[in-house]
Specification:
The complex is a heterodimer of chains A (282) and B (278). Chain A has 282 residues and is mainly alpha-helical. Helices cover 75% and strands 1% of the residues of chain A. Chain A has a single domain, classed as MetI-like fold. In chain A, strands 1-2 form a two-stranded antiparallel sheet. In chain A, a hairpin with a 4-residue loop joins β1 and β2. The model of chain B has no long low-confidence stretch (mean pLDDT 86). The chains are: A mainly alpha (282), B mainly alpha (278).
Chain lengths: 282, 278
């Protein structure tokens, strides 16, 4: 009894913040998603107009498709890169000091501004940017490539640039807890390096991969600023639908889209969480 | 030492490319921010100068950079302190497996995975309907906590998963009260990790954009100010601002890392002398 009481007292600050700034906003969004709106104002109502409009629009379906496409492509790329980097750090770097130093080198950008990291791609990818200038001087192309900036390519590049860290960190964390005698056992039993990787390391790294996946998928699906900035407003995802509606003061419509997005994200996470116990894996 | 296999060199090259990919763009705008007064947004460099850094503070058209920085800094400190205190407290609570802890845990995970714009929209709507004014220190502060607290909590889980309970038992056996155990045994042991939580709290707040977008009110934080600039500034002045804020972030990171390092050294000196006797 006292254990529960003290537990709740200690957890109360967290619970209060989450009540006020997570649960209440979600409830508010759900309520407002049934409201109506005119050009200048919103009014309380209980109607399904926002949802029926949402599901009837082919644009919305396409945008949801694009959102999943971004998430899938970025997931594959960040997983490939993140796994390779973590594998190198965990199994090929031999001294702990170097492991920590190189790991920190990978994580430092996480603590700097995303927007500035996006801006910093402009001199690379622009029409007269470094990439085009280099390719032209090498004679690979005659005219500047137009699709480097403000395209799906630049959006995905920026996502990978921003979010690969979220794969590296949890995968590295699980890899560091793999008992090295298992690897020796595999080698003694005659496994090649590749067989050890596939049959021992990858299965044992799954929890880390799952946690990284949760981060990357939710960050990409919920994003609106990267897509807007890196595509020069020429591409759309669900986050941008919401932020456009907000810009037009169409809060009920934005709220309805937000509810559908939230359900989609939670569904994906719910599926992923079945494969991993986050609390145990930290 | 064992001969390195070929795969080591291949992977090392891959890693080097990855680091270049991570840092290359940032370094590029670092260089370009020293463009000459006539220079453009990309290479070639048109002379070398600190013109754009001066420009940043001269031009009124750029906006209130100093004010935005001050607000972001203050907000970062507020979020940092709150995140540390609340995370430690919640971390202690979760060790007890109290009733309903699973619900709170899932709420924290939801807070981590929820698209940021929902928090922004929801908090904005609530303040609007209740007739409150959104302000960075109230609605902005709360919204940012929904992002920093789950990180703090996850770090606390990692910390307490590795925490040796026999230290607490020893303290209790010697007659320490529950509070004394926490104050003189638990907190000093987890102190370096708390610096980590503080670093997360400050930097995540300092760089947060989406959650403050609709909740900061009429006074912008720095990321909002920077974003505003991207839409209407087409000179290297934006690189100068980027270079300055990134340098500031790096400074903060180095300061925190030095703190952890110093703490570990002091601890080793004052720690156990086992094995040194004979």
């Amino acid at each position: 009894m006292t254990r529960n009481l003290i537990g709740w007292l200690q957890a109360a600050p967290l619970a209060l913040v989450l009540m006020g700034f997570l649960v209440a906003p979600i409830i508010m969004i759900v309520i407002v998603s049934f409201w109506g709106s005119t050009e200048y104002s919103i009014y309380p109502a209980f109607q399904f107009d926002n949802y029926s409009y949402l599901f009837a629009s082919s644009v919305v379906w396409r945008v949801f498709g694009a959102t999943f496409k971004y998430a899938a492509i970025v997931w594959v790329l960040t997983l490939g890169i993140g796994f390779t980097v973590a594998y190198f750090l965990a199994f090929h770097v031999r001294s702990l000091t170097w492991q920590i130093a190189l790991f920190l080198l990978c994580t430092i950008p996480f603590w700097t501004s995303n927007i500035i990291r996006m801006i910093s791609w402009i001199p690379f990818l622009g029409r007269n940017g470094i990439a085009n200038q280099t390719l032209i001087s090498w004679g690979v192309i005659d005219e500047p490539l137009e699709w480097l900036l403000y395209s799906d390519f630049s959006v995905i590049l920026a996502f990978v640039h921003l979010y690969t860290l979220f794969m590296v960190v949890p995968i590295f964390n699980t890899m560091m807890r793999i008992d090295h005698s298992l690897l020796e056992a595999a080698r003694d039993a005659g496994a090649t390096g590749f067989q050890t990787l596939v049959n021992v390391i990858i299965p044992l790294t799954k929890p880390g991969i799952m946690i990284g996946t949760i981060f990357v998928v939710t960050l990409v699906m919920g994003d609106f600023i990267t897509v807007r900035f890196m595509s020069g407003s020429q591409r759309a995802n669900v986050g941008r639908l919401i932020s456009n509606d907000i810009g037009l003061l169409q809060y009920p419509s934005a709220a309805a889209t937000a509810v559908v997005l939230l359900c989609t994200v939670l569904l994906v996470i719910g599926i992923l969480l079945r494969f991993v116990n986050i609390r145990k894996e930290l | 030492m064992e001969q390195r296999p070929l795969s080591f060199y291949v992977l090392a090259a891959f890693f080097a490319l990855f680091v270049l990919f991570l840092y290359g763009p940032t370094i590029t705008i670092g260089i370009l921010s020293f463009q000459g007064p006539e220079g453009g947004l990309t290479f070639p460099m048109n002379g070398v100068s600190t013109y754009w850094f001066h420009d940043l503070f001269r031009e009124q058209a750029v906006g209130d950079i100093w004010g935005a920085f001050r607000r972001s800094f203050l907000l970062g400190l507020m979020v940092m302190v709150t995140t540390v205190v609340v995370s430690v407290s919640a971390g202690l609570a979760f060790r007890k497996n109290f009733k309903g802890s699973a619900i709170l845990f899932y709420a924290a995970i939801t807070s981590l995975v929820i698209p940021s714009i929902l928090i922004s929209l929801g908090v904005g709507l609530i303040f609007n309907q209740l007739g409150f004014k959104v302000h960075w220190a109230t609605s902005g502060f709360g919204s940012q906590l929904t992002w920093t607290l789950p990180f703090g909590l996850l770090i606390m889980f990692a910390v307490f998963n590795r925490f040796d309970k026999s230290f607490e038992e020893a303290a209790r056996d010697q007659g320490a009260t529950a509070w004394q155990t926490i104050r003189f045994v638990v907190l000093p042991i987890i102190a370096p990790s708390l610096i980590g939580v503080a670093l997360f709290g400050f930097t995540l707040s300092y760089d947060e954009f989406a959650r403050t977008l609709l909740t900061a009110g009429s006074y912008n934080t720095l990321p909002l100010e920077v974003f505003g600039m991207t839409t209407n500034v087409t000179t290297p002045v934006i690189y100068a601002l980027g270079t300055l804020t990134t340098s500031f972030s790096l400074l903060i990171i180095v300061a925190f890392l030095l703190m952890v390092w110093g703490m570990n050294i002091r601890r080793r000196r004052a720690g156990s002398d086992a094995g040194k006797g004979v």
